[in-house]
Amino acid sequence: MEPQQRVGELQAAVERYSEGASPFYDEVVQEISKRAAEQGNLGKADIGALVAWKRLNANTRWMSDLMRSSDATVRAATAEARKSALQEGSTLELAAARARSALAPIPGFGVGDALASAVIYALAPGRMAVYDRRAQAGLELLGLELTAKSGRYGRYMALVDQLVNEARVEGLGLSAREIDLGLFTLGGPVA
Asked: Are 139 and 183 contacting, i.e. CB atoms less than 8 angstroms apart?
């Protein structure tokens, strides 16, 4: 698919998302992002709220392991992730990959990118985006490949950055978050 067509598909998807979405849906993540900006990290309560925001099942072993971890450990890892995500002079792909790696010591963050990306987005909302299965499906519909091999979140952010730049060339100022919402909408319901 050509960049102009991709951008058109994304723009239409962002508009469809905006028409159907509640204006209050992102209040939780906005509040958590504000706290992250003020404190420089996130704690277990913040991650619990992001689990609800991402509509994940909190009745799992990883959540139990998380709750047995010290909040200081979680805050240290998220502080390092925030520092990595916001590192100036670093490519978006590298910053995202380093931020994702910084979260690995937290129980439940060793594998999988959906919740990790929500945490990273909350830590750096002006730079990062959220990844999930629907965004993956949206990328595929646009003819962009993203494999599940290690380092996926960094590669995802490189693709988001590519799409932001393609939109800019077409005269649209879509943010990374708008790109992920467009991908989410394009990806449609995932079973």
From this structure: yes
Structural domain including 156 reads: 3-187
CB-count exposure of residue 149 (10 Å: 0-12, 13-18, 19+): exposed
110 exposure class (CB count in 10 Å sphere: 0-12, 13-18, 19+): exposed
Other Cβ atoms less than 10 A from the Cβ of 28: the count is 16
Considering the entire predicted model, what is its pTM? Answer: 0.87
Q: Return the pLDDT at 30.
A: 92
Domain count, the chain: 1
Q: Which has the higher per-residue pLDDT, 97 or 56?
A: 97
Q: Provide DSSP, the chain.
A: --HHHHHHHHHHHHHHHHHHS-TTTTHHHHHHHHHHHHHSS--HHHHHHHHHHTT---SSHHHHHHHHS-HHHHHHHHHHHHHHHT-TTS-HHHHHHHHHHHHTTSTT-SS-SHHHHHHHHHH-TTT-----HHHHHHHHHTT-----STTHHHHHHHHHHHHHHHHHHTT----HHHHHHHHHHHH----
